[in-house]
Structures are given as structure tokens and as C-alpha cells.
């Protein structure tokens, strides 16, 4: 058994012997998801940040199934992105996309928009300086917000 992390007095453990994406039939005596009710596993997973949740998704098939099947886990993270990409998230949800798909589609865009609005790229003088940065397309309204923020600086 290997200690992974501790958060809010709940310890998370994974098996050293369990390879990535083991079958749910291969049991590990320390896999909380096999012992606890599904609601408790979801509570534990809901405490994870987006990077940790994506890592947990790859741990084993049981964790993958629990996380993948719970739209609620993805909704919370998507609402954070929605603060910066309201129009995009609302459009994806109206189109019928799941919270997970909506989050994946807008996560990088939301991060980039937030960085632009905070002035991280205020010192950029030409497009050549952006070549080594992780960029994605932004809509006209977003560029308008960025321009307004730059003019106020």
C-alpha cells in the first residue's frame, strides 16, 4: 500500500501492486472504492482538484467508472471555468453536452482568458512572442474584454 495524499483528514491510498487501469475484479484490500458505498467514494472524489481527478480517473477501472459516470464531479469544476467562459459553457450545455465534455472543451480557454485578463500577456509586443505559449482560439467578445482590460491598465 502506498500513501498518496491527505486532504481534510481523509487519507487516500492506492495499491502498489495494482497497475494502471486494472480490472474491477482484481481487488485490493486498501481500495476504498471497493469497501465504501458509492456515495462515499463520490464524496472523496469531489474533494479533488481537476488535475487530481483526472489522475484518479486513470488509476483503475473501478475509479474510472465511478468518476466517468458522475456528471456531478465534473459540474463543480465546470462552474469554475464558467466564471470566465460563461457564453461558451452555456452554449455547450444548451447543445446537450455533458459537464465533462463541456469542461474539457473550455478548460484551456478559460485558463487562457483569465491569464489575459489578469495582464499576464500585457508585455507581449508581437505574435512571434506567443509562439512558445500554449494558446487557443478565443471569440470576439473575449477579445473585446481583453482589449478593455488592457486599455484600463
TrEMBL record:
<dbReference type="GO" id="GO:0031146">
    <property type="term" value="P:SCF-dependent proteasomal ubiquitin-dependent protein catabolic process"/>
</dbReference>
<dbReference type="GO" id="GO:0005737">
    <property type="term" value="C:cytoplasm"/>
</dbReference>
<comment type="pathway">
    <text>Protein modification; protein ubiquitination.</text>
</comment>
<dbReference type="GO" id="GO:0016567">
    <property type="term" value="P:protein ubiquitination"/>
</dbReference>
<dbReference type="InterPro" id="IPR001810">
    <property type="entry name" value="F-box_dom"/>
</dbReference>
<keyword id="KW-0833">Ubl conjugation pathway</keyword>
<feature type="domain" description="F-box">
    <location>
        <begin position="30"/>
        <end position="77"/>
    </location>
</feature>
<dbReference type="InterPro" id="IPR036047">
    <property type="entry name" value="F-box-like_dom_sf"/>
</dbReference>
<dbReference type="GO" id="GO:0019005">
    <property type="term" value="C:SCF ubiquitin ligase complex"/>
</dbReference>
<protein>
    <submittedName>
        <fullName>F-box protein 48</fullName>
    </submittedName>
</protein>
<dbReference type="Pfam" id="PF12937">
    <property type="entry name" value="F-box-like"/>
</dbReference>
Amino acid at each position: 500500500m502506498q500513501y498518496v495524499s491527505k486532504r481534510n483528514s481523509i487519507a487516500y491510498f492506492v495499491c502498489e501492486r495494482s497497475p494502471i487501469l486494472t480490472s474491477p475484479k482484481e481487488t485490493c484490500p486498501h481500495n476504498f472504492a471497493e469497501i465504501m458505498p458509492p456515495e462515499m467514494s463520490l464524496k472523496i472524489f469531489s474533494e479533488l482538484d481537476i488535475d487530481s481527478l483526472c489522475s484518479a480517473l486513470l488509476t483503475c477501472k473501478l475509479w474510472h467508472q465511478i468518476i466517468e459516470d458522475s456528471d456531478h464531479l465534473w459540474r463543480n469544476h465546470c462552474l469554475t471555468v464558467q466564471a470566465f467562459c460563461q457564453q461558451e459553457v452555456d452554449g455547450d450545455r444548451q447543445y446537450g453536452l455533458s459537464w465533462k465534455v463541456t469542461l474539457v472543451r473550455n478548460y484551456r480557454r478559460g485558463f487562457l482568458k483569465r491569464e489575459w485578463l489578469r495582464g499576464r500577456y500585457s508585455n507581449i509586443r508581437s505574435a512571434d512572442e506567443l509562439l512558445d505559449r500554449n494558446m487557443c482560439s478565443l471569440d470576439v467578445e473575449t477579445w473585446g474584454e481583453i482589449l478593455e482590460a488592457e486599455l484600463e491598465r
